[in-house]
Each structure stands twice: as C-alpha cells, then as structure tokens.
Amino acid sequence: MAADKLSWATTEPLGYGKKYTYKASATGSDGKKVELTGSFTTLKPKSTPRATVNPVDDAVVGVGMPISIKFPEGPVQDKAAVEKALKVETSVPVEGSWAWLHDRQVDWRPKEYWPAGTEVKVSANLYGVPYGGGAYGKSDLTTAFTIGRNQVVKIHTPDHRMDVYRDGKLYTSYPASNGKDADPNLNTPNGTMIVMAKEKVGNFSNPRYGYTDVEKLWAVRFSNHGEFIHENEENRANIGKRNTSHGCVNLFEPDAKKYFDSAIIGDPIEVTGSKADMPTTSDVNDWLFSWAQWQSMSALR
Q: For the L,D-TPase catalytic domain, which residue ranges apply (predicted)?
C-alpha cells in the first residue's frame, strides 16, 4: 500500500500470460464498507528472448573494458525502451554512455579509461520491457565487477618496440616486430583495442598465406581481425629491427611470457604509425569511435 493509502502495487513482477483475481475492501468516512472484486490477464509475448551481460560477477578487468549486453536470440527493435531499463553505478564518478553497436548488442563505456579500482554495478531491468515485434524481456540481469590497475600498451609501429605503461608512466618496454609496413593488409592496424583473451599456446595457421599448424606461446588477443601479441622466436632476427609479421606483435619468448603474465582482459592496446586503421567491424570496437560518435549511437540521444 502506498503511503497515502490511495494505491496498491505488487512487490514482485506479474507473470506473462497469467490471470489474476483480486478482492479489496475499504471503509469510507461515512462508515460504510465498500468491496471491489475483479480479474485481469497479463499479455502473452510472442517471444521472451534472453540477454547476457559482461563482465561477469566478481571479475577484475582492465581500464578499457566495456560493459556489453547482448541479445543472441533476436534483434531489438525498441532500443530506447531497452536502454531506459539499464543502469550503471560506480564507486567514483565516471562519465559514460550506452551505444548500440548493432541491433543485438548495446555497450557502455566511459568517456576516458576507467579510474583504477572503480567498483561497478550494472542493473538491466529487462523483464517486461517491450523489445518490439511482440518480444519482451525474459528476465532481469545484474553484475558487479572491479576495475584493476591501470595498464596500457602503446605501440608506435615504426619504433619496433612495445611499451607498457602503469598509471601513465613507462613501466617496461620490449623489442617487437609488427605487421609488414609495405602491405596495409598486413599492418598492425592503428586504433585503440583491448585485451580480449589469453592463450598459453595459440594456433596461427593461415592457409591464405601458405602456413598451417603454426603454434606460438603466450598469445594475447586484442582483436577479432586477427591481431595478437605473442612470442615468435622464428622471427628473432627481425624483432626490434624490422616489421615482418602478418599483423601480430612478435616478441622474444621471455618478454612475451612476462607481458602475458601481466595482462588482464580489458587492458587497452593503443597502436599508431601504421598505414591501415583497424576496421570498426572488429568485434570489440568500442574505443575505435570518438566520444561524439559514441554518444550519437545511443537510442536516447
């Protein structure tokens, strides 16, 4: 019952496609008792697509990590309705915005990198939200995660080095061989990406260029366009001297191991100096857009 006693609301969401009956009574100022009974039914959705959220609970991620809510079972037509149901809470003030990368994914990223140590809570109150086309949200989602230390990799490809910064200061630097300068298709593309995955042993077979069954150690993926940071002792003669890879960042094996151990998902990787730019069709492309572009991709702008 509301504080003014003029309305009543359920303390839990009603079910889809259900019939509810009610009975109410009240006594007026004249002392007369009034009763009211009735029933109603709730809508039956055409579908109730599930959604997913990332990062997951208790994750510790890098300062470039976006929040992603995906709708794998179907496109969202009413993006504004969905976006209104989303909430991000942070332990310190952080300016950010939601943006629709396509009709099955909406991401939130800060204007600048997250402050280290920020505690983040996300609420997606999607149950009952109309997605359009007769689809309604299946259930609410929540997650709570932490931003780790500030580590950013900077690669200026002509320098043949990979610099690692902590809290804005140079932490360590490794000799590197990047993508071939002469062929833009083989460049390590310009742009800000993030660490997406880590594999102790990565398979780098590429029949298009005539090599198969190629495995390299300490592989850190930073795009779905094909770029990794990994060891390549077979390219030792060029590391630190010439760019000869097919787009990956080649390191000596001990350096690759040290970097692998230091990296966490969501760490930014900033690449400059190449002839080619990372295409915005890469799966994790949040930092490839300017802040103004990013804001324009919100359904509520």
A: 151-272
Q: Token pair for residue 189?
A: 């593309």
Beta strand residue intervals within 7-160, DSSP E:
19-27, 33-41, 52-54, 60-61, 67-70, 86-90, 96-102, 105-110, 119-124, 130-132, 135-136, 141-147, 151-156
Q: Which two tokens stand for residue 242?
A: 């010439």
Q: For the chain, report the end-to-end CA distance as a whole number of angstroms.
A: 36
Dihedrals phi, psi of 253, to nearest 5 degrees: -60, -45
Cβ neighbours of 269 (radius 10 Å) = 28
CB neighbour class for 258 (10 Å; exposed up to 12, middle 13-18, buried from 19): middle
Pairing verdict, β 119-124 and 19-27: unpaired
Going from the N-terminus, what domains does the chain have, and what CATH number goes with each? 52-148+289-296 (2.60.40.3710), 151-285 (2.40.440.10)
Inter-residue contact 260 to 164 (CB < 8 Å): no
Cβ contact 150:264 at 8 Å: no
Residues with active-site annotation: 230, 248
Give the pTM: 0.92
CA distance 263 to 150: 11
Give the model confidence (pLDDT) of 171-206 as tens digits: 999 999 999 999 999 999 999 999 999 999 988 767
Q: What is the mean pLDDT of residues 95-106?
A: 97
φ and ψ at residue 41, rounded to 5 degrees: -120, 150
Give the pLDDT score at 210: 67
Q: What three-state secondary structure class fits 8?
A: coil
